[in-house]
Protein backbone atom coordinates (compact mmCIF):
# COMPACT_ATOMS: atom_id res chain seq x y z
CA UNK A 1 0.00 0.00 0.00
CA UNK A 2 1.43 3.38 -1.05
CA UNK A 3 -1.01 6.17 -0.15
CA UNK A 4 -0.37 9.67 -1.54
CA UNK A 5 -1.98 11.64 1.30
CA UNK A 6 -2.42 11.38 5.06
CA UNK A 7 -6.16 10.93 4.59
CA UNK A 8 -5.60 7.97 2.24
CA UNK A 9 -3.07 6.49 4.67
CA UNK A 10 -5.49 6.61 7.61
CA UNK A 11 -8.23 5.04 5.45
CA UNK A 12 -5.86 2.31 4.25
CA UNK A 13 -4.86 1.48 7.85
CA UNK A 14 -8.51 1.28 8.86
CA UNK A 15 -9.22 -1.13 5.98
CA UNK A 16 -6.22 -3.33 6.75
CA UNK A 17 -6.00 -3.83 10.52
CA UNK A 18 -2.56 -5.13 11.44
CA UNK A 19 -0.82 -3.31 8.57
CA UNK A 20 2.35 -1.59 9.76
CA UNK A 21 3.45 1.88 8.56
CA UNK A 22 6.95 2.07 7.14
CA UNK A 23 8.89 5.28 6.51
CA UNK A 24 12.64 4.81 5.89
CA UNK A 25 12.50 1.19 7.07
CA UNK A 26 15.86 1.44 8.88
CA UNK A 27 14.39 0.21 12.18
CA UNK A 28 11.42 -1.76 10.88
CA UNK A 29 13.13 -3.81 8.18
CA UNK A 30 15.87 -4.79 10.63
CA UNK A 31 13.19 -6.29 12.88
CA UNK A 32 11.49 -8.01 9.91
CA UNK A 33 14.78 -9.41 8.61
CA UNK A 34 15.66 -10.69 12.08
CA UNK A 35 12.30 -12.52 12.21
CA UNK A 36 11.11 -10.42 15.17
CA UNK A 37 8.16 -8.99 13.28
CA UNK A 38 5.84 -10.51 10.66
CA UNK A 39 3.51 -7.69 9.54
CA UNK A 40 0.40 -8.78 7.63
CA UNK A 41 0.99 -5.83 5.28
CA UNK A 42 3.17 -2.73 5.01
CA UNK A 43 1.88 0.80 4.51
CA UNK A 44 4.59 2.86 2.80
CA UNK A 45 4.58 6.54 3.85
CA UNK A 46 7.22 7.65 1.34
CA UNK A 47 4.80 9.13 -1.24
CA UNK A 48 3.05 11.47 1.21
CA UNK A 49 4.50 14.88 0.28
CA UNK A 50 3.00 16.74 3.28
CA UNK A 51 5.08 14.58 5.64
CA UNK A 52 8.40 15.50 4.05
CA UNK A 53 8.61 19.27 4.69
CA UNK A 54 7.75 21.79 7.37
CA UNK A 55 5.54 24.83 7.82
CA UNK A 56 5.29 27.68 10.32
CA UNK A 57 2.37 28.06 12.70
CA UNK A 58 1.99 30.46 15.66
CA UNK A 59 5.69 30.82 16.49
CA UNK A 60 6.33 27.12 16.02
CA UNK A 61 7.56 24.86 13.23
CA UNK A 62 5.32 21.99 12.24
CA UNK A 63 7.75 19.31 11.08
CA UNK A 64 6.55 16.49 8.83
CA UNK A 65 7.18 13.07 10.36
CA UNK A 66 8.80 12.03 7.06
CA UNK A 67 11.67 14.54 7.30
CA UNK A 68 14.87 12.56 6.92
CA UNK A 69 17.87 13.04 9.20
CA UNK A 70 19.92 14.16 6.18
CA UNK A 71 17.36 16.89 5.43
CA UNK A 72 17.29 18.08 9.05
CA UNK A 73 21.09 18.26 9.14
CA UNK A 74 21.17 20.82 6.28
CA UNK A 75 22.07 24.47 7.06
CA UNK A 76 18.62 25.99 6.42
CA UNK A 77 17.06 23.60 8.96
CA UNK A 78 19.99 24.13 11.37
CA UNK A 79 19.29 27.87 11.33
CA UNK A 80 15.75 27.10 12.49
CA UNK A 81 16.18 24.33 15.10
CA UNK A 82 19.92 23.93 15.67
CA UNK A 83 19.64 21.27 18.38
CA UNK A 84 17.59 18.96 16.19
CA UNK A 85 19.93 19.50 13.24
CA UNK A 86 22.93 18.55 15.41
CA UNK A 87 21.16 15.42 16.64
CA UNK A 88 20.13 14.39 13.10
CA UNK A 89 23.72 14.81 11.87
CA UNK A 90 24.93 12.23 14.42
CA UNK A 91 22.45 9.47 13.47
CA UNK A 92 24.16 6.36 12.06
CA UNK A 93 26.05 6.32 8.75
CA UNK A 94 24.96 8.47 5.74
CA UNK A 95 22.90 5.63 4.19
CA UNK A 96 20.76 5.59 7.35
CA UNK A 97 20.50 9.41 7.55
CA UNK A 98 19.38 9.58 3.91
CA UNK A 99 16.26 7.49 4.50
CA UNK A 100 15.70 7.33 8.28
CA UNK A 101 13.04 9.79 9.46
CA UNK A 102 12.11 11.94 12.42
CA UNK A 103 8.78 10.10 12.77
CA UNK A 104 10.45 6.68 12.73
CA UNK A 105 12.92 7.83 15.39
CA UNK A 106 10.08 9.01 17.66
CA UNK A 107 7.80 6.00 17.16
CA UNK A 108 10.66 3.51 17.59
CA UNK A 109 11.40 5.32 20.89
CA UNK A 110 14.77 3.60 21.29
CA UNK A 111 16.39 4.82 24.56
CA UNK A 112 19.38 6.05 22.51
CA UNK A 113 17.26 7.72 19.79
CA UNK A 114 19.18 10.90 18.97
CA UNK A 115 16.26 13.24 18.29
CA UNK A 116 14.46 12.32 21.53
CA UNK A 117 16.42 14.35 24.14
CA UNK A 118 16.24 17.40 21.89
CA UNK A 119 12.47 17.05 21.44
CA UNK A 120 12.13 16.57 25.22
CA UNK A 121 14.19 19.71 25.96
CA UNK A 122 12.19 21.67 23.37
CA UNK A 123 8.94 20.37 24.91
CA UNK A 124 7.74 19.37 21.45
CA UNK A 125 4.23 18.07 20.86
CA UNK A 126 3.09 15.45 18.37
CA UNK A 127 0.15 15.62 16.01
CA UNK A 128 -1.41 12.16 15.68
CA UNK A 129 -3.99 11.38 13.01
CA UNK A 130 -6.27 8.38 13.15
CA UNK A 131 -9.76 7.08 12.44
CA UNK A 132 -11.14 9.16 15.33
CA UNK A 133 -9.54 12.40 14.14
CA UNK A 134 -6.54 14.50 15.11
CA UNK A 135 -5.04 14.84 18.57
CA UNK A 136 -1.99 16.54 20.02
CA UNK A 137 0.16 14.92 22.72
CA UNK A 138 3.39 16.03 24.42
CA UNK A 139 6.34 13.99 23.16
CA UNK A 140 7.08 12.90 26.74
CA UNK A 141 3.59 11.37 27.03
CA UNK A 142 4.11 9.20 23.96
CA UNK A 143 7.61 8.13 25.00
CA UNK A 144 6.63 7.22 28.57
CA UNK A 145 3.52 5.37 27.39
CA UNK A 146 1.10 7.71 29.22
CA UNK A 147 -0.47 8.40 25.84
CA UNK A 148 0.69 5.81 23.28
CA UNK A 149 -0.14 5.65 19.56
CA UNK A 150 -3.57 4.07 19.19
CA UNK A 151 -4.62 1.39 16.69
CA UNK A 152 -4.73 2.90 13.18
CA UNK A 153 -3.01 6.17 14.18
CA UNK A 154 -0.12 7.82 12.39
CA UNK A 155 2.37 10.38 13.63
CA UNK A 156 1.87 13.24 11.17
CA UNK A 157 3.75 16.26 12.56
CA UNK A 158 6.11 17.27 15.34
CA UNK A 159 5.43 20.79 16.64
CA UNK A 160 8.57 22.54 17.87
CA UNK A 161 8.58 26.08 19.33
CA UNK A 162 10.97 28.42 17.54
CA UNK A 163 13.12 29.90 20.31
CA UNK A 164 15.67 31.82 18.18
CA UNK A 165 18.40 31.03 20.72
CA UNK A 166 21.32 28.60 20.99
CA UNK A 167 20.64 24.87 21.30
CA UNK A 168 23.27 22.16 21.59
CA UNK A 169 23.22 18.37 21.28
CA UNK A 170 26.23 16.30 22.37
CA UNK A 171 26.54 12.54 22.24
CA UNK A 172 29.04 10.02 23.59
CA UNK A 173 29.41 6.68 21.79
CA UNK A 174 31.28 3.55 22.79
CA UNK A 175 33.51 3.75 19.71
CA UNK A 176 34.84 6.20 17.15
CA UNK A 177 32.68 6.89 14.08
CA UNK A 178 28.91 6.65 13.91
CA UNK A 179 27.24 4.68 16.65
CA UNK A 180 24.38 4.65 19.12
CA UNK A 181 24.72 7.03 22.05
CA UNK A 182 25.90 5.66 25.38
CA UNK A 183 24.87 9.03 26.81
CA UNK A 184 23.62 12.24 25.21
CA UNK A 185 22.69 15.70 26.41
CA UNK A 186 20.60 18.44 24.86
CA UNK A 187 20.71 21.99 26.24
CA UNK A 188 18.26 24.60 24.98
CA UNK A 189 18.22 28.28 26.00
CA UNK A 190 14.92 30.10 26.25
CA UNK A 191 15.93 33.76 26.81
CA UNK A 192 12.33 35.03 26.68
CA UNK A 193 11.55 32.98 29.80
CA UNK A 194 15.12 33.26 31.15
CA UNK A 195 15.24 29.50 31.34
CA UNK A 196 17.61 26.69 30.45
CA UNK A 197 16.13 23.36 29.44
CA UNK A 198 18.13 20.17 29.45
CA UNK A 199 17.42 16.52 28.65
CA UNK A 200 19.66 13.50 29.00
CA UNK A 201 19.31 10.57 26.61
CA UNK A 202 20.39 6.91 26.54
CA UNK A 203 20.84 6.51 30.33
CA UNK A 204 17.21 5.45 30.95
CA UNK A 205 14.35 4.08 28.81
CA UNK A 206 13.21 7.67 28.05
CA UNK A 207 14.97 11.06 28.05
CA UNK A 208 15.26 12.56 31.55
CA UNK A 209 14.79 16.24 32.46
CA UNK A 210 16.88 17.40 35.46
CA UNK A 211 14.38 20.13 36.40
CA UNK A 212 16.10 21.30 39.61
CA UNK A 213 19.47 21.63 37.86
CA UNK A 214 17.79 23.60 35.04
CA UNK A 215 16.19 26.06 37.49
CA UNK A 216 19.41 26.40 39.50
CA UNK A 217 21.63 27.15 36.50
CA UNK A 218 19.16 29.64 35.02
CA UNK A 219 19.72 31.70 38.17
CA UNK A 220 23.51 31.70 37.59
CA UNK A 221 23.31 33.24 34.10
CA UNK A 222 23.70 36.96 33.47
CA UNK A 223 20.64 37.19 31.15
CA UNK A 224 20.80 41.00 30.82
CA UNK A 225 24.50 41.07 29.99
CA UNK A 226 26.43 38.82 27.64
CA UNK A 227 24.84 35.61 28.99
CA UNK A 228 27.97 34.40 30.73
CA UNK A 229 28.40 31.96 33.59
CA UNK A 230 31.31 31.29 35.95
CA UNK A 231 33.28 28.15 34.95
CA UNK A 232 32.75 26.72 38.45
CA UNK A 233 28.97 27.12 38.06
CA UNK A 234 29.07 25.37 34.65
CA UNK A 235 31.01 22.47 36.21
CA UNK A 236 28.55 22.30 39.11
CA UNK A 237 25.68 22.20 36.58
CA UNK A 238 27.33 19.17 34.93
CA UNK A 239 27.55 17.35 38.27
CA UNK A 240 24.00 18.36 39.20
CA UNK A 241 22.62 16.97 35.92
CA UNK A 242 24.63 13.75 36.25
CA UNK A 243 23.56 13.09 39.83
CA UNK A 244 19.92 13.75 38.91
CA UNK A 245 19.96 11.37 35.92
CA UNK A 246 22.40 8.58 36.76
CA UNK A 247 21.89 6.70 40.03
CA UNK A 248 24.65 6.63 42.63
CA UNK A 249 26.55 3.32 42.50
CA UNK A 250 25.67 1.08 45.46
CA UNK A 251 28.19 1.23 48.32
CA UNK A 252 31.04 -1.25 48.21
CA UNK A 253 30.81 -1.61 44.38
CA UNK A 254 34.00 0.17 43.40
CA UNK A 255 34.82 -2.25 40.59
CA UNK A 256 32.58 -3.89 37.93
CA UNK A 257 29.09 -2.42 37.61
CA UNK A 258 29.84 0.31 40.18
CA UNK A 259 32.75 1.58 38.09
CA UNK A 260 30.58 1.58 34.96
CA UNK A 261 27.94 3.71 36.71
CA UNK A 262 30.62 6.14 37.90
CA UNK A 263 32.00 6.39 34.34
CA UNK A 264 28.51 7.09 33.01
CA UNK A 265 28.01 9.81 35.64
CA UNK A 266 31.29 11.43 34.64
CA UNK A 267 30.37 11.26 30.95
CA UNK A 268 26.98 12.90 31.54
CA UNK A 269 28.59 15.58 33.72
CA UNK A 270 31.16 16.46 31.04
CA UNK A 271 28.54 16.45 28.24
CA UNK A 272 26.20 18.72 30.24
CA UNK A 273 28.99 21.16 31.18
CA UNK A 274 30.24 21.34 27.57
CA UNK A 275 26.74 21.66 26.11
CA UNK A 276 25.96 24.55 28.45
CA UNK A 277 29.31 26.17 27.69
CA UNK A 278 28.69 25.96 23.95
CA UNK A 279 25.15 27.30 24.29
CA UNK A 280 26.43 30.31 26.25
CA UNK A 281 29.45 30.99 24.02
C1 LIG B 1 23.00 0.89 10.95
C2 LIG B 1 22.02 1.72 11.76
C3 LIG B 1 22.49 2.72 12.57
C4 LIG B 1 21.59 3.51 13.32
N1 LIG B 1 22.10 4.51 14.11
C5 LIG B 1 21.24 5.28 14.81
C6 LIG B 1 21.76 6.35 15.60
O1 LIG B 1 22.96 6.61 15.71
N2 LIG B 1 20.85 7.10 16.28
C7 LIG B 1 19.50 6.88 16.21
O2 LIG B 1 18.73 7.62 16.84
N3 LIG B 1 19.00 5.87 15.45
C8 LIG B 1 19.83 5.07 14.75
N4 LIG B 1 19.33 4.05 13.99
C9 LIG B 1 17.89 3.76 14.01
C10 LIG B 1 17.05 4.39 12.87
O3 LIG B 1 17.80 4.68 11.75
C11 LIG B 1 16.31 5.67 13.33
O4 LIG B 1 15.54 5.41 14.49
C12 LIG B 1 15.41 6.23 12.24
O5 LIG B 1 15.07 7.54 12.58
C13 LIG B 1 14.14 5.40 12.04
O6 LIG B 1 13.39 6.02 11.02
P1 LIG B 1 12.75 5.20 9.81
O7 LIG B 1 12.04 6.18 8.96
O8 LIG B 1 13.74 4.34 9.15
O9 LIG B 1 11.71 4.31 10.63
P2 LIG B 1 11.02 2.93 10.16
O10 LIG B 1 12.00 1.82 10.30
O11 LIG B 1 10.33 3.09 8.85
O12 LIG B 1 9.90 2.80 11.30
C14 LIG B 1 10.25 2.65 12.65
C15 LIG B 1 8.96 2.44 13.47
O13 LIG B 1 8.18 3.62 13.43
C16 LIG B 1 6.90 3.37 12.84
N5 LIG B 1 6.62 4.58 12.05
C17 LIG B 1 7.45 5.23 11.19
N6 LIG B 1 6.90 6.38 10.78
C18 LIG B 1 5.67 6.45 11.37
C19 LIG B 1 4.61 7.41 11.34
N7 LIG B 1 4.70 8.54 10.64
N8 LIG B 1 3.51 7.16 12.08
C20 LIG B 1 3.40 6.04 12.83
N9 LIG B 1 4.37 5.10 12.89
C21 LIG B 1 5.49 5.31 12.18
C22 LIG B 1 7.05 2.09 12.05
O14 LIG B 1 5.82 1.39 11.94
C23 LIG B 1 8.06 1.36 12.92
O15 LIG B 1 7.40 0.76 14.02
C24 LIG B 1 20.19 3.25 13.24
C25 LIG B 1 19.71 2.24 12.40
C26 LIG B 1 20.61 1.48 11.66
C27 LIG B 1 20.07 0.39 10.76
Task: Spell out the blueprint of helices and strands.
Elements: H1 6-15, E1 20-22, H2 28-33, E2 42-44, E3 54-57, E4 60-64, H3 69-72, H4 75-80, H5 82-89, H6 94-99, H7 102-108, H8 115-121, E5 125-130, E6 133-138, H9 139-144, E7 154-161, E8 167-173, E9 181-190, E10 195-201, H10 211-218, H11 231-245, H12 256-279
Helix pairs in contact: 10-11, 11-12
Bound molecules: flavin-adenine dinucleotide (FAD).
Keywords: FAD, Flavoprotein, Oxidoreductase
Protein name: FAD binding domain-containing protein
Pfam family, one: FAD_binding_5
Could you characterize what this model shows?
This protein is of the alpha+beta class and 281 residues long. Among the domains are: 1-43; 167-279, 2-Layer Sandwich (Enolase-like, domain 1), CATH 3.30.390.50. It is 38% helix and 21% strand. The protein contains twelve helices and ten strands. The strands form three sheets. It has a five-stranded antiparallel beta sheet, sandwiched between helices. Strands 8-9-10 form a three-stranded antiparallel beta sheet, sandwiched between helices. The protein has a two-stranded parallel ribbon with strand order 1-2. Strand 9 and strand 10 (195-201) form a beta hairpin. Helix 11 (231-245) crosses helix 12. The termini are far apart. Flavin-adenine dinucleotide is lined by residues 20-28, 30, 45, 65, 91-92, 96, 100-101, 103-105, 107-108, 113-114, 154-155, 178, 180.
Amino acid sequence: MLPASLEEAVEALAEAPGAVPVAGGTDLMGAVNAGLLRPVALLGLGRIAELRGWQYQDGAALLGAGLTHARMARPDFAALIPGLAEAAATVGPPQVRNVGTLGGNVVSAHPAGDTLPVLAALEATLTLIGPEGVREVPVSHLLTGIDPLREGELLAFVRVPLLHAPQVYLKATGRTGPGRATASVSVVLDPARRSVRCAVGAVAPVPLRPLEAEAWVAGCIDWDGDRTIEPAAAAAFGDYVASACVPEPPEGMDGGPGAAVLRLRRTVSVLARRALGRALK
